[in-house]
Specification:
- This is DegV family protein.
- It holds the Pfam family DegV.
- It comes from Cytobacillus horneckiae.
- One of its GO terms (molecular function) is lipid binding.
- The protein has about 280 residues and is an alpha/beta fold.
- It folds into 2 domains: about 110 residues, Rossmann fold (3-Layer(aba) Sandwich), CATH 3.40.50; about 120 residues, Hypothetical Protein Tm841, Chain: A,domain 3.
- It is about 40% helix and about 25% strand.
- The strands form 3 sheets. It has a 6-stranded mixed beta sheet, with helices on both faces. It has a 4-stranded parallel beta sheet with strand order 2-1-6-7, sandwiched between helices.
- Helix 3 packs across helix 4 and helix 5 runs antiparallel to helix 6.
- The chain starts with a strand and ends with a strand.
């Protein structure tokens, strides 16, 4: 059985990597006024962060069911099945769009997977699925492996500016105002598919230290982990953090990724995150 792997743009897997591992991507969009841009296709992370300095914060939109149907129908010409891996259904209807489209398309079996997370941590699932698909593993085996990965996947992130979370409906106005007054940098995570505060911490430095400590709790046993540092237009900070983490945890393989336009709309520039999974 020949299996295709599909994900959405919020995994922020570069085009070079997608092409190398034969990963198909369906984009979400950011909307500035009347102008809509598909992230990773029509707008890059770099240009997005430049745009928001001069414009109002955009809104975001998910792919239509029709876009999924079109992609799945195209894939049905060459594949028997498709594993469709998407950002958490608690923050977007993208996963449900894949489910609906899968019921509408004939000639290919669609296996939708709710990552219950986003960004490169979602990408961990995608890359493993692509690796297994290339080896000829069955869709059922790939889905089982991803379910196993879910047990050890962790991700924590820090929003530098609470106003983005508040405007995007992720925090109440009172929480955002209070947080800003106290210089609180909440450490956030996904719980029950939604973004929620994990701990409220007073400074950026302490918030990032807390995230490192959380990794340490898992990695201290010496088992092999794969991790990704995720940044919102802070590449130099990410590189510096990577060097520090590599010294602390030689049993962890670190990469660097980014919060692109759609997730960056909700978190804001300067946000930093760290996600990991047991190898």
């Amino acid at each position: 059985m020949k299996t295709a792997v599909v994900t959405d743009s919020t995994a922020y897997i570069t085009k070079e990597v997608r092409d190398k591992f034969n990963i198909h991507m369906i984009p979400l969009s950011v909307i500035f006024g009347n102008e809509s841009y598909q992230e990773e296709v029509e707008i890059t992370a770099e240009s997005f962060y430049e745009e928001v300095k001069h414009k109002e914060l955009p809104t975001t939109s998910q792919p239509s069911v029709g876009e999924f149907v079109s992609l799945f129908e195209k894939l049905s010409q060459d594949y028997d099945a498709v594993i469709s891996i998407h950002l958490s259904s608690g923050i977007s209807g993208t996963f449900q769009g894949a489910v609906s489209a899968g019921d509408m398309v004939e000639g290919i079996e669609v296996y939708p997977f709710d990552s219950e997370i986003s960004c490169m941590v979602q990408g961990f699932y995608v890359l493993k699925a692509a690796e297994m698909a290339a080896e000829g593993k069955s869709p059922e085996a790939i889905m089982a492996k991803m379910a196993e990965m879910k047990k050890s996947i962790r991700a924590y992130f820090m929003a530098d500016d609470l106003s983005h979370l508040q405007r995007g409906g992720r925090l109440t106005s009172a929480q955002a105002i209070l947080g800003s007054l106290l210089q609180v940098k909440p450490v956030l995570h996904f719980e029950n598919k939604k973004i929620v505060p994990f701990e409220k911490i007073r400074t950026r430095k302490k918030a990032m230290k807390r995230i490192v400590d959380l990794l340490g709790e898992d990695a201290k046993g010496g088992e092999q982990y794969l991790a990704s540092i995720i940044h919102a237009n802070r590449e130099e900070d990410a590189k510096k953090w990577k060097a520090e983490l590599e010294e602390l945890y030689p049993n962890v393989e670190f990469g660097i990724s980014y919060f692109g336009p759609v997730i960056g709309t909700h978190l804001g520039e300067g946000s930093m995150g760290l996600g990991w999974v047991k190898k």
